[in-house]
Amino acid sequence: MKYLYLHGLGQNAGSWNKVIEATEVLDHSVCLDLSEMVKGKAVTYSTLYSAFVELCAAENEEIILCGLSLGGVLALNYAIDYPQKVKALVLIAAQYKMPKRLLKLQNALFRFMPQSMFQQTGFGKLDFISLCDSMVELDFSGSLNQVSCPVLVVCGEKDKANKRASIELADIMKHSQFKEIPRTGHEVNLESPEELASLLRKFYKSI
């Protein structure tokens, strides 16, 4: 069994370190670096997802996907397209239908931010803008029933922008459960790594 972790936009592979150390599956876990997956290519959702599909295809074992925000969108997309490959799915603060107004507002803010604010993520300022622009039309509403594996949906109590979508996901999808982490915002893996790891340990043992 291989556990693949996908970080959110604005994070990097190291954002999962504290969580994975506490999950008891460290030897079988891989933290993917999304920026490395599209290095030298146009940074759009399509190119990122295609690179992720290729990476998963190279795995001979069943995989468990755990993604936050953008990483959750990629994981959900893959579980819809390749249900036979995914043993279980963890979606953290993930949207299944992109909030267009929020993405456009986010991109407007990115345009005013200095380049230095993006350096630690591996993506440049224009990459952020291009990626968000390319995601605006994403909508998996009609395909959620294609996910057949157990699903854990997680959201921070203070993550107002994503809580409603998380609850809806858990209601719509088969074999799914919703867990809220108290006193926590959007970046659950950074803000409450031990609490998240506790949820993951219980979920992994149940599948």
From TrEMBL:
Keywords carried by this UniProt record: Hydrolase
Gene Ontology terms, MF aspect: hydrolase activity
Highest taxon in the source lineage: Bacteria
AB hydrolase-1 domain ranges (all copies): 5-198
InterPro entries per record: AB_hydrolase_1, AB_hydrolase_fold, AB_hydrolase_sf
Family annotation (Pfam families): Abhydrolase_6 (PF12697)
GO-annotated cellular components: membrane
Signal peptide feature range: none
Gene3D superfamilies assigned: alpha/beta hydrolase (3.40.50.1820)
Name this polypeptide is given: Alpha/beta hydrolase
